[in-house]
Structure formats: C-alpha cells, structure tokens
C-alpha cells in the first residue's frame, strides 16, 4: 500500500515531544534521523539516541487527510516536508538488498533466505531484526574480522554487550569452547538465545544480564562492541574479565575517541595499533 511520509526538522530537545504527537496523530511508525547524516553507532539497548539537529519522520497511511494533519500538529511552526512514498513491497526490497557478507578469511554472515556462498566456510545464519547488530555496521565488521584472525580453539570468550549474539555465535563457530554473552537488556538476551539455537550452538553459550554475572568470571578473549563512554566507564569491570595474557577487543568507538579509550585500558594491556574503518575504530590488546 502507498504511504505518506512527514519529516519534521527539529532539535533533540523537542524530538521526543514531537514523536509523541506524531504517534497520537495516527503515525504507524516514527523514527529519528540525523539531519546532517552523520555516522552514528547503534544505540545501547533500551537507549534512545538523538542528535543536535534531528529529523523526526512519521509514516502515515496514504488516505490520511493532509490538511487535518497539518492543523492537528500545527506544522506551520516547524520546517517540514510531506511526501508520497512509492507503493512497493518494502519487506521484499529490503530482503533483496541484504546479502551474505564475508569477514576475514573464513567467516560469513548469511541471512536465512539466501544461498550460502561457501558451504565449507564458517557460516553464521543471522536474520536482521529487533536487536542489535547484523554485521553491516563498521564496528561489528571490525569485531568479526578480528575474531576471524584469532585461534579460538579451546578458548573461553566473553561478548560484553552481546545484542543479537552475532559476535558470540561467530566465536563459537570459529572454534571457541564456550562463550558468555552479557547485556543490560532482556530482549538482547532473548535475541542471542534465539540466534544461538538457530545456529545449533546454544549448548555452548551462557547468557547473563549484567547485574547477574557470576563472581570471578574470566575468559581468554573478551570483546565489547558498545560505545566509547560506557567502555571508559566500565574499564575496571571489563579489564577484570580478561585472564592474564588474554586478549581484549573493543569497538563502537569513533576514531576521534580512540585515544581517550586507550587511556582507560593502557595500564593493564599492551595495546596494538588502532584499526580504523569508515570513521570508526577497533582497539585490541593483550592483558599484562
């Protein structure tokens, strides 16, 4: 069916209020977009991330009365645009544009509706959905490539901020003996559990909410793909999870934030050169 899209340019202070008004006026969905299309990392589970100049975008049935909508929302007070969206099978078009992706030498992330390019490769089956990482974002790609470069045989791995479980499942498929996934959001825990079952590795993964972690938990490899702020704040806790001589991988960090994150970890780790991709970066190191 055809749709009408209403795009209102506003500030982050007003975006939430406008979002509520759009929902009350009959919008079937409301999203936030950065006006200047700056690269923004996926927000933490449960967090709504807004930016300095924000577009609030509402989607309405094409039969919506535009004049009535303009009056209800008092649109004259905003800079806005109303446009008709082409009638397409959006789900099919989206599926057609999601392809298997290779990371490193061995690892592929494959949606379930596509043929596996290399049956002899390490294939993770993961369909994009609610939570929180599919491999398309540079930070996830950086982490997957790093995992592919490691010898994970007989290793214990912790995925801190597991989201969809993509990194945890990849680690298991790459040979890890056991993986512990940690997140602050119960939906992420459920998504990781579902994806682990889909990939037949559920017997080797343990999942915990952050507040429920067992005491004295440690691993040979710890990976955390969250955001620079939480990575710095959580540095003492994350560092304790890494065994002596164990490996640490951090991402979710803009390149201009890398130095401050390195500062938070350099006393306990011998850090490698920072790797950058599309304004994002990955920090890795070995526990002293």
Automatic annotation (TrEMBL):
**Reaction it catalyzes:** L-lysyl-[protein] + 3 S-adenosyl-L-methionine = N(6),N(6),N(6)-trimethyl-L-lysyl-[protein] + 3 S-adenosyl-L-homocysteine + 3 H(+)
Record has Ribonucleoprotein as a keyword = yes
Q: Which domain of life is it from?
A: Bacteria
Per the record, the GO terms for biological process are: methylation
Which InterPro entries would you find in this protein's record? Ribosomal_L11_MeTrfase_PrmA, Ribosomal_PrmA_MeTrfase, SAM-dependent_MTases_sf
Which locations, inside or outside the cell, does it occupy? Answer: Cytoplasm
Q: Which residues bind S-adenosyl-L-methionine?
A: 140, 161, 183, 225
**This protein's UniProt keywords:** Cytoplasm, Methyltransferase, Ribonucleoprotein, Ribosomal protein, S-adenosyl-L-methionine, Transferase
Q: Name one GO cellular component term.
A: cytosol
Name where it mostly resides: cytoplasm
Q: How would you classify this enzyme at the top EC level?
A: transferase
Gene Ontology MF terms: protein-lysine N-methyltransferase activity
User: Signal peptide location in the record?
Assistant: none
Q: State the EC number(s).
A: 2.1.1.-
- What HAMAP family does the entry give? Methyltr_PrmA
Q: What does this protein do?
A: Methylates ribosomal protein L11.
Family according to the record: Belongs to the methyltransferase superfamily. PrmA family.
Extract the PANTHER family matched here.
ELECTRON TRANSFER FLAVOPROTEIN BETA SUBUNIT LYSINE METHYLTRANSFERASE (PTHR43648)
Return the NCBIfam families for the record: prmA (TIGR00406)
Instruction: Please identify the protein, giving its name as recorded.
Output: Ribosomal protein L11 methyltransferase
What is the scientific name of the source organism?
Gilliamella apicola
């Amino acid at each position: 069916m055809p749709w009408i899209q209403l795009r209102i340019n506003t500030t982050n202070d007003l975006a939430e209020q406008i979002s509520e008004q759009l929902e009350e006026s009959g919008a079937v969905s409301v999203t936030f977009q950065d006006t200047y299309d700056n690269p923004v990392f996926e927000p933490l589970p449960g967090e709504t991330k807004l930016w300095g100049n924000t577009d609030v975008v509402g989607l309405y049935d094409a039969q919506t009365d535009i004049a009535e909508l303009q009056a209800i929302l008092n649109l004259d007070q905003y800079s806005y645009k109303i446009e008709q969206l082409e009638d397409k099978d959006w789900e099919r078009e989206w599926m057609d544009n999601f392809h298997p992706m290779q990371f490193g030498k061995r690892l592929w992330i494959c949606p379930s509706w596509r043929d596996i390019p290399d049956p002899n490769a390490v294939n993770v089956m993961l369909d994009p959905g609610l939570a929180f990482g599919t491999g398309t974002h540079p930070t996830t790609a950086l982490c997957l490539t790093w995992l592919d470069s490691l010898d994970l045989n007989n290793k214990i791995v912790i995925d801190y901020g597991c989201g969809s479980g993509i990194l945890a499942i990849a680690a298991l498929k790459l040979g890890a003996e056991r993986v512990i996934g940690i997140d602050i959001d119960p939906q992420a825990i459920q998504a990781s559990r579902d994806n682990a079952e889909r990939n037949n590795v559920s017997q080797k993964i343990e999942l915990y909410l952050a507040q429920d972690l067992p005491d004295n938990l440690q691993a040979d490899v710890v990976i955390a793909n969250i955001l620079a702020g939480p990575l710095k704040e959580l540095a003492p806790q994350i560092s304790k999870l890494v065994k002596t001589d164990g490996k640490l991988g951090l991402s979710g960090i803009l390149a201009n934030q890398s130095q401050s994150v390195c500062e938070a970890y350099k006393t306990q780790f011998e850090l490698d050169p920072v790797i950058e991709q599309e304004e994002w970066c990955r920090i890795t190191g070995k526990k002293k």
